[in-house]
Amino acid sequence: AHWKAAWLTLRQGRNEQAKKDFEDQISWYPSSSEVPAALYWRARLAEEDNDLPMAQAYYQTLSLRYRNYYYGELARERSAKLKVDTVADPPHYAVLDRVPPVNDLDKITPDEVPTDDLRVQKAELLANGALIDLAVRELRAAAQEEKGNWAPAEIARLYQDLGRYDQAIETLKHAAPNYFAVDLPTLPRSYWEALFPRAYWPDLKKYASANALDPYLVASLIRQESEFNPNAVSHANAVGLMQLLPKVGRGVAKQEKIRHFNTQQLFTPTTNLRLGTHYFRSMVDQFGSFEYALAAYNAGTDRVQDWMGQGKYRDPQEFVESIPFTETREYVQNILRNAYVYRKLYEAATPAVAGASDRAATKGPEAPSTVKTD
To answer: Which CATH architecture has domain 118-188?
Structure first.
């Protein structure tokens, strides 16, 4: 309730009161999920006042404490553009002391897989026979007996090898629930590549490029929509990797001149990617920014047009924080955040690491996986 009131104050143009409200949010509710937003928008108001040292201090605290968060990345971008003179005794802002330290995971270095364990050997045989659920059961039993921390990565690897990327993602989310708050070296590269796979990469990259879209943004959208499960069906009957409604699929298929289209083709990754990237591009063209387009992809174009009419916004970031639907607001922020993590992981990847990832890039499920509902 306090954050909603603070945000309304900013939207009403009452900046002096908003400054106090944002600082109170940090001081009174330091563990709340709104602290990153409060830090960011307090820094933005400091920028507008030309108080660059204060803005820099807030941005730096935000980017260090919330490393891979949506607002953490925005803070890094704005901080890099500030021209702040270095002083011997920089000002201290007591409210920043209230920001809790990162609850860092201990650095995870997985133990070697005990390949001589009979359960592990049995799991490998079961996995080779596409009996993945039985294989996972054996690995979990072996992990309890061996008392090692190797199991999550090994289970995720088996899921990835069979193209069941959604289950690999969920396995490691459970193993490292705080992964967004930590620096990349804290977790093994294999964890990150399973959490952020480049599944169906040749087709994804092809159709993203054909529609002038960043493939990592498209991958992030798919991760949020279906976790790369091509058989996913939502409660609203949205289908496949990019969760297209059959009506949307039929409409875009006509534009793409796909003859004899039927909605079952939406379960085919290539077709879903072709139509989904076309559809998302049309929203970017309609609204002029990825933030608005993502909101429309989730909540519908009519709602976004209504929200855009509710006053002026400094920029798309202010629009995103003003989205009244929590699900849609977090959806947009999560996708933009995940796209940043994707770029950080792969744009500077070494050839050896990238090659290992690419080997699985075209693999899909070898057997139909359980249909996932959102």
So the answer is: Alpha Horseshoe (1.25)
